[in-house]
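Q: How do we represent a protein-ligand complex in a form that can be generated token by token?
A: Start from the inputs.
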Amino acid sequence: MPAELIDSPEGTIEIRLIEPSLALRLRHEVLRPHQSIEEMGLMGSDQPGAVVIGGLLSTSGEVVGTCAVAPEEPPGALGELVTDRPAWRLRSMATAPRLRSRGIGAAVLRAALAHVKESGGALVWCNARTAARRFYEGAGFVAFGSEWDEGAIGPHIVMWRRTDESKGNRDERRAKGS
Ligand SMILES: CC(C)(COP(=O)(O)OP(=O)(O)OC[C@H]1O[C@@H](n2cnc3c(N)ncnc32)[C@H](O)[C@@H]1OP(=O)(O)O)[C@@H](O)C(=O)NCCC(=O)NCCS
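Then emit the structure tokens for the protein with coenzyme A bound:
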């Protein structure tokens, strides 16, 4: 996967695969500040096939954007609706607050989708925070089913998309109508 480069006021940001441990500080700050890093754990990045994408500042090496993908069956009703396999789950999507709305999240997500596609994955799904729903919609994801509350983390909804958009949207239309 060729690395994508993004300009920022703090220097160039390189988007590439990283060691899972390098993402922990940013995940903790953005996604799980109510837990210790030990309680947070690896959030699935130790599953077979899992990879972590990072956006690294060239000046310091700091990880300022991240997400992770791993093979995992979609939750019940979505799995019954969509027959394309294999499916991968997207997790731990985060951008450093001071560098948001500069395209880092979109680039990290593009790299994750490219990795899944190169690995033969047909479908990517996630438990999305509803606050980030429009971000995922901008990347071609659609919502499935009803929202639920994850306590301290807030409301969530399942979102998904194919890695190959040319496959059409028959199932997406059915999912939206569900
Ligand atoms: C969601 C998040 C990762 C986006 O990162 P980012 O680097 O700011 O995203 P980008 O700059 O690439 O934004 C891409 C698009 O999504 C939009 N967008 C980003 N965050 C958004 C949000 N929270 N709500 C609505 N739209 C959003 C941007 O406006 C942009 O749209 P555009 O391309 O039309 O300009 C970041 O806001 C974040 O870390 N949020 C807190 C953690 C979180 O909710 N993670 C998702 C867990 S499921």
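The longest strand covers residues 63-71. The CA atoms of residues 84 and 122 lie 6 Å apart.
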